[in-house]
Request: fold
Amino acid sequence: MRLALDTLGERLHHLPDGETGERFHWIIHIENELRAHPDLELARDGDWSDYDKTPMLKVRRGHRLLGAGLDFGHARYALESWPVFARLREQTGHSDLSFLVGIPGDLDMAMFTLGPAGGLRHRRAFTEATVGSIRRIHQELGQEVVFQIEIPGELVLLARVPGPARPALAAALARGVVTLAAAAPAGARFGVHLCLGDMNHKAYGRMKDAAPLVQLANAIASRWPAGRPLEYVHAPFAAADAPPPTEPAFYGPLAGLRMPPSVRFVAGFAHEKQGLSEQQRIRDLIDGHLGSPVDVAAACGLGRRNRADAEANLRRVAELTA
Reply:
């Protein structure tokens, strides 16, 4: 947190705790802990070295998986980190800074745990557990928190289907995402992080152009429930270790993005392995299609980078927003 504040300062809208320690691999620590769950058993082992080498669990025969029996640890970690955030915010004088808490989407949690078929069959338990985490954190921290719903599975799935099938699928996927917000307490603040995956700093999927993220972002924003502010949508243009494309045609579909005026669009293209002049051209392309300057970020979190690359990425964001 101190590194981000020192590098970006007043440019920051929200500040996460960095998901340090065992959380630096996003949900892998949660999946490993679920191996000991009394209602689950190992269906296939894996070492997480690649996307096709992940372990898979299944519900034990005769057992029922309930949301009340799942604790992903989101509330525990948020409440542990909150005092550090509050102290740094006071020390640096950034009184408007909000505490960002990452919340993996329920469909992603279900499918990475139980596989596609099992995840869909038992999704309700993951939905209930995810909403429960949001409610507990909001009860303790209220308006100080922005919940970032993180959904790589939805964007990757949408990017893989043929174009004519995307509108219907985008609508179905969006309904699942907005269900989490609708079940949250009134006044809870949100952002949505579309993602292409970053396990071991490798992408789970790729896009031929920006059309899938535009379709999914539009579908989510148009269905967002009242009384739960959607503050931003963050979309990836880079793909983990791969810098963003430089071809102008890739960004053309952004002309169809339809975000309400109150929702900031965060362009995830900042990448330390690409030259600054190329990155500036990409920024200008995105701004041009949207008709106004966008927020700038990396495509995903910095946890899968080494420290030197993470620092370089933060400096790149500072250069692109100078």
User: Anything to note?
Assistant: The chain has one domain: 2-320. The radius of gyration is 19 Å. The domain at 2-320 is CATH 3.20.20.210 (TIM Barrel). The first helix runs from residue 2 to 8.
